[in-house]
Amino acid sequence: TKAYLAAMEAARDLNAYVVEMPEKALEMAAASDAKIAAGEARALEGIPLGIKDLFATEGFHTQAASHILDGFKPAYESTVTSNLWADGAVMLGKLNMDEFAMGSSNETSYYGPVKSPWRKAGSNMALVPGGSSGGSAAAVAARICAGATATDTGGSIRQPAAFTGTVGIKPTYGRCSRWGVVAFASSLDQAGPIARDVRDAAILLKSMASVDLKDTTSVDIEVPDYEASVGQSVKGLKIGIPKEYRLDGMSAEIDGLWQQGIAWLKDAGAEIVDISLPHTKYALPAYYIVAPAEASSNLARYDGVRYGLREKGTDIADMYENSRAAGFGEEVKRRILIGTYVLSAGYYDAYYLKAQKVRTLIKRDFELCFDAGVDAILTPATPSAAFGIGEKAGADPVEMYLNDVFTVTVNMAGLPGIAVPAGLSGEGLPLGLQLIGRPFDEATLFKLGTVIE
Ligand code: GLN
């Protein structure tokens, strides 16, 4: 813990942490020392972790990287972090992220962008770590935590993992409790780990996952010993390669990486089959209706009364307006506007209802493949390597949304997906592949992930 605290101090220019908690960390580490001395070490005893600012940490800064939650220190602890502490893990601090987890580059944070520790060969340009769990990914990649919590609504664990050469898994919807995780789009949000390798991700997910009476969408299915899957044979597993993921204009580099992944899995004894997920092209537009719709509803609670920031106003409605105007950033406001629009009486059927129908079709595409015997699906994790800070922000927001093209389908279908580092781009940046599994079959993803990493 001391070594990590020193490393955090030396790496402050990355802006990965929004709050460092040296005192709390040392106190937790001392408690772990006592457990170890007593011969009572638990699964994560003394392991120093970073926590995404989206997770409620009792008595500590929890602001979803937003101005509107200024000063918010919850009186409760999220279930996921409670599980980690119950296994002996140590909290180093809260990690930067896109505001309310809305973004793909960690440039929408109230606390400013996170810098990736990576650079292109021969260049000193600062790169994004991806988002929204950009602080988590950068911190794991820079070795300023041993592992991190993250969340994924449309790719926010897998895309930053791919951009930083780390491993990130979004478990099946319902695997981890959402209780105490600041809500973005409740039917899509899932917590998961970002870690250095597949084994660490397996160990962390085992601890994070649980059924929870406080989240009725969490599911009572046994959480297997994921670590036992690491390195197990993948012989005979059927891996689907969806033709719809070969996008027009896909770079030769990404295609090459995908082919390489196919070859590795084949060499390891897996069977490769071509599959079709015909509704893939509708996933991104449908996601950018469903996610903002739910966000606009979830974010209605930030009114200047119950949490954080309060601005002055001539009456209560004026105070609400002023607080929300000052408290939310531009991307969050855009989502609220889109969400409110697609849910409004005149447009509900045309947009929201239609998007929900599309969601069902996307889910069915996957079900048909799994019913036909496919064990997992291999795709690229992102359409490109990391880009420069400022390179895509502020331009056309759709340009940024396209980053999620390979990841959002998985959230729409509620499936587990893992991003695993698979190689470097021509410019020396990490590139990742994604494996998508059957519901609650994260174990198979850990098996296959070990072959790729
Ligand atoms: N980039 C996507 C968005 O902005 C996904 C975010 C996430 O998974 N939290 O909505």
Short description:
The protein has helices at residues 2-10, 22-37, 79-86, 134-141, 158-164, 198-208, 252-267, 283-298, 316-327, 330-343, 349-371, 397-401, 408-413, 442-452, and strands at residues 17-20, 48-52, 90-95, 147-152, 167-170, 190-195, 238-242, 271-275, 376-380, 417-424, 430-437. With 453 residues, the protein is an alpha/beta fold.
Can you walk through the features of this model?
- There is one protein chain.
- The relative contact order is 0.15.
- Strand 2 (48-52), helix 3 (79-86) and strand 3 (90-95) form a beta-alpha-beta unit.
- The chain has helices at 2-10, 22-37, 79-86, 134-141, 158-164, 198-208, 252-267, 283-298, 316-327, 330-343, 349-371, 397-401, 408-413, 442-452, and strands at 17-20, 48-52, 90-95, 147-152, 167-170, 190-195, 238-242, 271-275, 376-380, 417-424, 430-437.
- Helix 6 (198-208) runs antiparallel to helix 14, helix 8 (283-298) packs across helix 10 and helix 8 crosses helix 11.
- It has an 11-stranded mixed sheet with strand order 1-3-2-4-6-5-10-11-9-7-8, sandwiched between helices.
- The chain has 453 residues and is of the alpha/beta class.
- It has a domain at 2-229: Amidase signature (AS) enzymes.
- The two termini are 27 Å apart.
- The protein is built from 14 helices and 11 strands.
- Helices cover 36% and strands 14% of the residues.
- The structure holds glutamine.
- Glutamine (GLN) binds at residues 101-104, 132, 152-156, 184, 291, 404.
- InterPro entries: Amidase (IPR000120), Amidase_CS (IPR020556), Amidase_dom (IPR023631), AS_sf (IPR036928), GatA (IPR004412).
- It catalyses: L-glutamyl-tRNA(Gln) + L-glutamine + ATP + H2O = L-glutaminyl-tRNA(Gln) + L-glutamate + ADP + phosphate + H(+).
- One of its GO terms (biological process) is translation.
- The active site is at 52 (charge relay system), 132 (charge relay system), 156 (acyl-ester intermediate).
- It is an enzyme of class 6 (ligase).
